[in-house]
From TrEMBL:
Protein name: Hypoxanthine phosphoribosyltransferase
UniProt lineage: Bacteria, Bacillati, Bacillota, Clostridia, Eubacteriales
Pathway named in the protein's UniProt entry: Purine metabolism; IMP biosynthesis via salvage pathway; IMP from hypoxanthine: step 1/1; Purine metabolism; GMP biosynthesis via salvage pathway; GMP from guanine: step 1/1
Localization, UniProt: Cytoplasm
Known function: Purine salvage pathway enzyme that catalyzes the transfer of the ribosyl-5-phosphate group from 5-phospho-alpha-D-ribose 1-diphosphate (PRPP) to the N9 position of the 6-oxopurines hypoxanthine and guanine to form the corresponding ribonucleotides IMP (inosine 5'-monophosphate) and GMP (guanosine 5'-monophosphate), with the release of PPi.
GO MF entries: glycosyltransferase activity
Amino acid sequence: MLNDIKEVLFSEEYLANIVQRMGKQISEDYKDKNLLMVSVLKGSVVFMADLMRAISVPCRVDFMSVSSYGSGVKTSGVVKIVKDLDIPLAGYDLLVVEDILDSGMTLSYILELLQSRGPRSIRLCTLFDKPERRTVDITADYVGTTVPDAFIVGYGLDYDEKYRNLPFVGILKPEVYGG
Ligand code: PRP
Ligand code: MN
Ligand code: MG
């Protein structure tokens, strides 16, 4: 697995620092709110697990899973719900938690869907932002760090469902994905 990594982009310690900083800011912003953290499976699980423990105000958590149709997914923008939230959203201040904001298709779909359910508020939180790749006009309210347009894996991010368990974020060797 480590042989497939060209270089480490963000160490475990660096990531922990970012997450602590985000947790502090969110705790400050949500101290008088009714926070419900919504994790978008599967990529956000590692970030979510660390971020929720960096938050010092009361909060609830829920999970949803979406997938794109076929292989033309990211360009078609067609997304379907694989697992929906369990909690009705009325009265909650939602924080949607993502690992990476790339084209923006996934988050814009989720944002529109959750908005229609009438929560008190919705904000978007992403650990990584790849603004160069954006095809939809969407920005996150909380961004850990911007990343270059490279194939990154680890800390939840996968290639072909692998490498999510790496504790750091690395750049994949092009030969691994046929680049
Ligand atoms: C990845 C990532 C984001 C999304 C970002 O998820 O975790 O959810 O793509 O890309 P976008 O901004 O272009 O929509 P993916 O669909 O690979 O599923 P996964 O989280 O299960 O890996
Ligand atoms: Mn994802
Ligand atoms: Mg993925």
